[in-house]
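Internal tracking record. Fields below are filled automatically when a chain is submitted to the structure queue. Please do not edit lines marked as system-generated. If the sequence contains nonstandard residues, flag them in the REMARKS field before resubmitting.
Queue: standard
Priority: normal
Entity type: single polypeptide chain
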Amino acid sequence: MNIQWKGVMPAVTTNFTAEDTLDFKMFEKNLNYQLDAGVEGVILGGTLGEASTLLEEEKQDLILETVRIVDGKVPVIMNIAEQTTRGAIEAANKAEANGARGLMMLPPMRYKATDFETVEYFTQVAKNTSLPIMIYNNPVDYKIEVTLDMFEELLKLDNIQAVKESTRDISNVTRIINRFGSRLKVLTGVDTLGLESLLMGADGWVGGLVDAFPEETVAIYKLAKAGRIQEALTIYRWFLPLLELDINAQLVQNIKLAEVGTGLGTEYVRAPRLPLMGAERERVLAIIDNSLKNRPTLPEYKSL
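SYSTEM-GENERATED OUTPUT FOLLOWS
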């Protein structure tokens, strides 16, 4: 399956039971809602997926189950976030063997690599997999920026095809398009810049709150791409207080609470994460409750 690198792609949460095992029943319910809403890919094992807490056998089971559920409707993309080049290559090979059709890749974890080391890291992984790759560029959280000059080198490799643009600099979408045209597909990775990035020409949106609100997210994307900007903007303005829950250190807990609100998940997280407590929990619940009370009626968007 070729990946078009467009549309809405949820960075899905990993559902757990009260006994801290993988909850595939709830996971399947959420995925089916994503597919019904019109997402164009599913991304596993990111920050929202709590990948750093998953055992290797759990990651394998997660890919296999996701491949079964989506049944070829959309590509399954596995996030790679490793400390070593060797580990990243092994993770990429396992993902491919288990049915993933693409990779999202972070720079090396824990070590602040130089520009040369970062390019070499991505290069070696790309040379050792046939899967297409989206580079996750998030210097705010991971302290390494993949610059345009670095992408110039990386794009010599055919299977490096897209960027999850999370620099928080909206003008970077235009810089990328001006320099690379359609050679490097741009997917925004910051929920609070979702519509703005699409209007600047981004090809897609890797979302977080889409996990709880798939229809609203896909509707914004479809309406924006169809030129129905005012309709997209109306939904987006309603959505913004929820989207701001994604740019927060407790984004996993926040989004899982939102999933509870829409019946698409549970709030079980894996320690050391713990469910929200006290005043912060009440603040987040108030945002979710108010948004649900004022949830907009969506236009027919799926055929756009």
